[in-house]
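S.,

As promised, the NDP run. Input:
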Amino acid sequence: MVEQLVIIGSGPAGYTAAIYAARAQLQPILFEGFEAGGLPGGQLMTTTEVENFPGFSEGIQGPKLMKEMRQQAIRWGAKLITDDVITVDFSQRPFTIATSDLEVKSHAVIVCTGATAKRLHIAGEEEFWNNGISACAVCDGTNPLFQNVEIAVVGGGDSAAEEALYMTKYASKVHLLVRSDRLRASKVMQERILNHDKIQVHWRVLPISAHGSDILQSIQLQDQKDSSIMELKVSGLFYAIGHTPNTQLFAGQLDLDEKGYIKTYGKTTATNIAGVWAAGDVQDHIYRQAITAAGTGCMAALEAERWLVEK
Ligand code: NDP
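Predicted complex:
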């Protein structure tokens, strides 16, 4: 039996694509993953309060939002499979999508495997993850833990600059920890950072450990020039050192950009292979928001539906 549509990935993009495709009676199969690329449900599963997803005026917990999306997809008839896709073959039609013990053939595929925020894996990171350490200021910045206290952001790119500026609204002081002696962020962001009276840039330092009781209270920094160690008393540590798109599965089949993100063409979610679309963070390193991922998931499902009808 050949399926009409398989969706790979279960973040906001995947579930939104599933909701639209199921309502269009495509009977989509959604592989929600098991452990590849993190938890089923994507990056919001490791977030606490989501305050900026429209429709929830009081905010909503990340895992609850994903549970609701999942339920909505099931309600409309999407079939969910909790397993990791380990191979795809887009070289022959119908396409083949396989887990370790299941092989599915499908006319169309939407890839929504997301991206994983890079971590430093310093000592104490697991203990304080979501209790002071986070990879998303826009998601977690309003947490009471970070109000009127000193926090640190690691990284020197546009994300780090944005997160540092964002956190100046809540924290009393923001320490920007840069491993080299230059910022990679755009000129305008650099100027904002360097001229902000709440931001102090520490050059050539790397965090090496996190300390506290139940919540984060301090980190140790290592000077990259002379290896000396210093302590910084902060209640928050935000990683903004880039993301890794979860595209290993598609290398050699789908066109990827120089950073490994799937290339989509024009104002669509179409990839280089007709019948394969990509939505969410796997094809977006700029916006990376739940709402933009959901939006592109919707686009991909509508594009797939039209393509299947034409065929
Ligand atoms: P980038 O790859 O641009 O920057 C990553 C930063 O993290 C660099 O400063 C890098 O240091 C540092 N870094 C990497 N690994 C480590 C590590 N192990 N320890 C310490 N520091 C580390 O990623 P971004 O997420 O900032 O940006 C990705 C893309 O998205 C860029 O093209 C950016 O322009 C774009 N973007 C655009 C925005 C906008 O236009 N509003 C907002 C956010 C992102 P080093 O420089 O030494 O390598």
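The first strand starts at residue 2 and ends at 8. Helices lie at 12-23, 62-75, 125-128, 137-140, 158-167, 187-194, 290-310.

- D.
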